[in-house]
Write a structure and sequence with these properties.
about 190 residues, alpha/beta, Leucine Aminopeptidase, subunit E, domain 1, 7 strands, globular, binds adenosine-5-diphosphoribose
């Protein structure tokens, strides 16, 4: 993995990459890569609902009955239940269909809308998984670049309560892809 930077400062906020399990993070919120039904699933969604308990599912049910299905690229916030994080921000990434128009924009929007919601709720720290790169099939190299650029431009464009963003990456291939993408964005050679 070399000496690539895993931590940068953007407009006085920290952005870092780590390998690990997001359900164990103690940031104010963790972000869930959910689906539009918000009723749980596999991957990180299943892990968050298992670790956080039924209060999260109950809160999701109320959101769905109030506003209907959550469109891709949007985000909602619930309690963190039994998690160390106080809140879970649920967002829906795009399903990879070959990278046609709109897919990258929906992925960027999932990150941006999650951060907006964190800021609206005056949260300081947020952890993200790698949205869409599991079941939804988005190629991780492309997704890593989009994810990091979306977070960096949010932090640069808006001065909010959010001072710490952590990407918690579950497997070494995903972690390496984010390390490379961050190095590319900051113009460093591998
Ligand atoms: N912590 C961090 N990352 C995790 C964890 C965890 N505990 N468990 C899985 N991941 C990683 C996966 O390895 C992958 O890199 O999260 C990334 C996203 O994968 P998915 O969870 O499959 O999410 P996504 O591709 O966005 O697909 C969403 O999957 O589970 C269903 O209900 C969900 O239908 C939705 C779809």
């Amino acid at each position: 993995m070399g000496n690539e930077s895993r931590q940068v400062t953007v407009n006085r906020a920290g952005l870092s990459l780590m390998a690990g399990d997001i359900t164990r993070q103690a940031t104010d919120a963790i972000v869930n890569a959910a689906n539009s039904g918000l009723m749980g699933g596999g991957g990180v969604d299943g892990a968050i609902h298992r670790a956080g308990g039924s209060a999260i599912l109950e809160a999701c049910r109320q959101i769905i009955s109030r506003q209907g299905r959550l469109p891709p690229g949007e985000a909602v916030i619930t309690t963190g239940g039994n998690l160390r994080a106080k809140y879970v921000i649920h967002t829906v990434g795009p399903i990879w269909h070959g990278g046609g128009p709109g897919e990258a924009e929906v992925l960027a929007s999932a990150y941006r809308e999650s951060l907006k919601l964190a800021a609206t709720n005056r949260l300081t720290s947020v952890s993200f998984p790698s949205i869409s790169t599991g079941v939804y099939g988005y190629p991780v190299d492309k997704a890593a670049r989009i994810a990091l650029e979306a977070v960096i431009s949010f932090l640069n464009d808006e001065f909010t309560s959010v001072k710490e963003v952590v990407f918690v990456l579950f497997d070494s291939g995903t972690f390496d892809a984010y390390v490379s993408a961050l190095a590319e964005i900051y113009g460093k050679k591998e």
